[in-house]
Amino acid sequence: MGHPIEAALTRAAPHQHRPAMPPPQSQPAEVLGLHDVTIAYDRHPVVHHIGGSFEAGSLTALVGPNGAGKSTLLKAIAGLLPVTAGEIRFGLDRRAVGYLPQVVDVDRSFPLRVIDVVDFGHWRKIGALHRLAGEDRAASIAAVASVGLGGLEYQPIGRLSVGQFQRVLFARLMVQEAALILLDEPFNAIDQTTTADLMRVVTDWRAEGRTVIAALHDLEQVKREFPDALLMARELVAWGPARQTLSEDNLARARALAAGWSDPAAICVR
Amino acid sequence: MQLLYEHLVQPFIEFGFMRRALVACLALSVSAGPIGVFLVLRRMSLMGDALSHAILPGAAIGFLVAGLSLWAMSLGGLVVALIVALAAGAMSRVTPLKEDAALAGFFLISLALGVLLVSMKGSSVDLLHILFGTLLAVSNGALILIAASASLTVIALALFYRTLILECFDPGFLRAVGGKGGLAHAVFLALVVLNMVAAMQALGTLMAIGLMMLPATSARLWTISIGRMIGLAVLLAMLSSIAGLIVSYHVNLASGPAVILAAGCIYLASLAAGSNGGLLRRYMRRPHLEH
Fold this sequence. Notes:
Number of strands of chain B: 0
Number of strands of chain A: 9
Helix content of chain A: 25-40%
Shape of chain A: globular
Strand content of chain B: under 5%
Shape of chain B: globular
Number of helices of chain B: 13
Helix content of chain B: over 70%
Distance between the termini of chain B: 53 Å
Oligomer: heterodimer
Order of helices and strands of chain A: HEEEHEEHHHHEHEHEEHH
Radius of gyration of chain B: 20 Å
Structural class of chain A: alpha/beta
Number of helices of chain A: 10
Order of helices and strands of chain B: HHHHHHHHHHHHH
Strand content of chain A: 15-25%
Structural class of chain B: mainly alpha
């Protein structure tokens, strides 16, 4: 090992030579790779042999008929469901994944204030025991303001409307500092103003370099706001730029696949 | 002033058993308050009730083995109630039954079993003793058990405070960010059981739950901050203890039920006048402002 001081110097050396900026990348990094992913409930597949990759900073809409497996796929990416076959690979720390489920099953009369709910977004950082730092609280307040709820920080959540509560959940996601954000039907049962505001938040995330995947059913909104789309009907139908993906042909094919789903899918033999 | 002193303070100075009962109740209040608040927040009010029945067969087994021994009955109650609580939790995860339904099944079995076991050897007086306690005959051992359980409860709740709140509010989110919700839930159930066992000799298994639920439910009607709810619940529990003991002394009533009834009165008053959803607020509408 040589002299202890020498060893210490060698250890310190890489720090001195580290470039100030990361080298420019010729290709965007893959944040999430799906490799022949199949997810089944009790052997009946709901997501069937889906493969492809999401690049860093991409904004992708997940589209498909009811029962197409969109929620299931998002849950599996969030790590809440096991993959039956195939593999989901992450190009980032798995803890940097933020997930907003379709139905957040919470008791809205629970005695918490808006700011308390948003503060929970710091969980990864402060865990069960650490004190919330001043800068963390400041980040929460900023997040509440940026979803358009400025001034309501200290309101009990019981006084909020459905749309306002969805804004709170978006603020909590912002505070999580997630690099990959999964949204499951985030604009369901939400009025137009709120949808527009929250859509702006999503576009901002993309500008900040975050990767966003959102399950949606409003095709016009997807064509208007989302660069990429993934059309699925249990299996992959099309994946690419939104307008091409949502062509009449592809949509018809997805509908045709969906028409055959009277019973649970047959046990996979492929 | 003299009259007040005679009625409110004298009994505790004059009689050792009154002092012991007071200490037991105050110590129980410290831990029963926060436990009750979390039971309310988790919507587990009735599950606490169910759990209190699950103590019975264990206590009965202890009674059969060692007679009216505090330690044998407490240990028996603790073990059996923990098994029932954890089994119900496990059943709700692996079968389509919800936790309350699973627990109801187990607690009905244990209640019947407990009564059967006690009646095999003891008299109905013994059964009453287990079910409702004897607050004016709290032993040294029981006092130590109560103090230890209260201390342990306060420390454990401090450690799991944030986890428990998030586990009640949004368990899915807690799971997604890697919190230990399952562990917190198990620890919490264990604390509920521990507190009921500790309160067994003083208040009995059935009454013990009253000192948890009534002050906590009352506190919910006055404030919407969890921290304040806990503080208020402890305060109200202590107040009911003192009031119950004094009334039971002067009117010569059973003291355990008197304490719980005092808590009950506070609950009814809160229902009527509570600033956060009390009935008066609801029905005494202030008129819409007109020009």
